[in-house]
Each structure stands twice: as structure tokens, then as C-alpha cells.
Amino acid sequence: MIKKAILPVAGLGTRFLPASKSIPKEMVTVVDRPAIEYVVREAVEAGIEQIILVTHSSKASIENYFDRNFELETTLEQKQKWDLLAEIRQIVPEHVSIVSVRQPQPLGLGHAVLCAKSLIGDEPFAVLLPDVLVKSQTEQNDLAQMAARYQQVQAAQIMVEAVPDHLVDQYGIVDVNTVPVEGQSIVMQGIIEKPAVGTAPSNLSVVGRYILPAKIMQLLQQTPKGAGNEIQLTDAIAMLQQTDAVEAYRMSGVTFDCGSKLGYLKAVLHYAVEHPKLGEKFIELIQELKL
Ligand code: G1P
Hints:
Spore Coat Polysaccharide Biosynthesis Protein SpsA, Chain A; two-stranded antiparallel ribbon; NTP_transferase_dom; transferase; UTP:glucose-1-phosphate uridylyltransferase activity; EC 2.7.7.9; GalU_uridylyltTrfase_bac/arc
């Protein structure tokens, strides 16, 4: 079983300024909770029991959010606000632990993942990039399906979705002989980080969800700086693929790139209309706008 997930949260979020100037971009609210809670929930739904935050000194509010807050809980108890109390206590289920390590220098995503090496040990693990929210369309979410597939075939799983050809230079792109149908995996022939438009092997982009063997850590230690002069996870995966089968898993859910302002607004809209308490009133608000 895949029990551990790495969430790299050390990035400074320049694409989300000014909102991210004094709060982490991961703490920006999507409806009534910080964006990162959706990502943690996705991991927990896929069976993850330990979340490893790879973080930065300016981001303590993320750790605080997932910790208990004794003073707040006592106050809510005294005021008999039982619903609120239950809600803040249920942010992370009891069987899930949240731990953190620091990424001391911004040397890239591959380096961030490597910072969690000692916590991973010999186990396969998941990586979830918290800029992207993945909304499931199926009972078992995409990450859970990737984890199940890993157990079955022991091949790394890289979640992908199709993007318009002019956007391939913003993502890792995989090379496959046949495009898998949604919810299916296929062995990939290669992977490249942010290829120039017109040179990409496909339009299947890496979404930011991975199931990887522990071996990737050794490969990351040998990975030279790549695109953007950073140590790229994509380059270590390309190395892994020289010796081991690596599969591209085509997701069936929907993604929202909360690293971009429009992607973030889209996420707010989608999660708000489906919110169990606010959804109906929110739809009325949108209708009032009469755009
Ligand atoms: C990272 C990965 C890239 C992936 C993308 C998804 O890039 O390196 O392969 O496609 O996340 O959001 P970044 O967006 O951090 O530049």
C-alpha cells in the first residue's frame, strides 16, 4: 500500500502575488478552507496516512493549520459551538499524521522531493503538487486508482491530462505510443520538462500527481540541473524509465491550476456551487450578476 505522500510547499508563489506576499499561496482560501486542505483530503481519500510537507521558514501557517489549536478548541467548547469544534477537529482524520521537513534552498521540485528522502525510507510514495486541485468524477479518486495500479504492476505512475498544443511548454510532457483512455495507464516511452511548442512528443501533460518507487531518491541525487536551472523531478523520472517501466495514467477528474489567478477563480466557482451549505445561495448570487 502507498501510505506516504510528499507535498512540496516551499515555493514562494510569485504567480499569486500580491495575495501570497505575507501568507503562503497554499493558504489562500477556496470557498471556506485553504487550498492545501483539498490536496490533503485527496491524498487521504487515496489511503495516504502520512503527509510530508517540504516547506520553508515563511510557511509555518500551513503546519499550524493542520495542528490542534488548544486555545481555539477550549474557547469553542466554552461557547458550546459544537459544530465548529467538530469541523476544525476533522480537518485531518486521527489516523493521518502531518510532518514536515525544510527545503533550505530553492533548487527545484526534484530537490524538494529529495529533501524528504530520510522520511520515505524504502517505501513507494505519492507526490502531490499543491498548486493543482484535482476534483474527482469517480467514487475512487484518480490518485487511489494510480496507487492500486502501482500495487498491481510495480511501475511508477505519472498522472497526465491533455492540454492545448500551445501550452505544452508550461508542463512536463510524456511520450506514449498510444493515448490511454481516461482512468487507464500505459507504459511511456519518455518524458520531458517544458518542451518548446512544436517539439513536444504529445500533448499529454504531467498534472502534478505521481506514485514513485523509493529508488527515485537515488536517481534524484544524481540528477543535474535541468530546465530553469533547477533539479527537475521529470529528469529523474526520465532516468528511471531507462531501467524500469514507468506508466502514464490518464486522469478522469478535473484539474484547477490554483497557481494562476484565473485557475484559482475557476476552482472557487466550481467548489462553491457544490458546497453543501453555501452552494444554492451562491448560484443565486451568480444569477444576480446577470452577465
Ligand atoms: C511542475 C513540474 C511539471 C508539471 C507541473 C504541473 O512544474 O515540473 O512537470 O507539469 O508542475 O503543474 P512547475 O509548474 O512547478 O513549473
